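User: Structure please.
Assistant: Input sequence and predicted structure:
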Amino acid sequence: MSDMTVYGIPGSPFLRAVEVTLKEKGADYRLQAMSPAEMKTPDHLAIHPFGRIPMFERDDFCLYETQAIIRYLDEVFPNPPLTPGNPEQRARMNQIIGIIEWYFFPKAAAPIAFNRIIGPKLLGLPSDEAAIADALPMARICFAELDRLLGDKPYLTGDNVSIADIMLAAQVDVLNETPEGHELISGTRLEAWLGRMRSRPSFIATEPPAMFRKAA
């Protein structure tokens, strides 16, 4: 039995990013699927006081925050490396991770995906069209800048997949299922990049549940 356990809600891009990393490393792990209600239970909050997912356990070591988990896995399972050895490429990876966490997810992907997929299709809530409209200017900035930073390279930092590719692809794959996301990526170099990421065995093996795809 694996000594590593990942806790999260199937369909979450954050959980998927961790699972993709583990698949890229060829590491065995156990997935403990959770429901949204479990995120606020005393047991969960005792480990993750912010009530989010994913969480990671290895023996008696517990960790939360997607980026921290992925960076940890990249250190303890060094092959294949997901952090560039070149200082400039490594700095670019960290810059893109900052864009994902500060701008792309909270101000663009989250409000659009929630109001197009999660709220209306999975929770029975009405779409907030104003929230979507408010998110679109930042979404356009993010897609334009990420497209510029990708340039003609196969992956965001060069010829090899990095942590930034995994984190961004998990988010864009969900957002692309919305009309707004599909329009934003169409015609950009990110479209072919997403195709390359989707074709990797690690992404194929971590496809969101059929219910989630159907909702999208």
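The first helix runs from residue 13 to 25.
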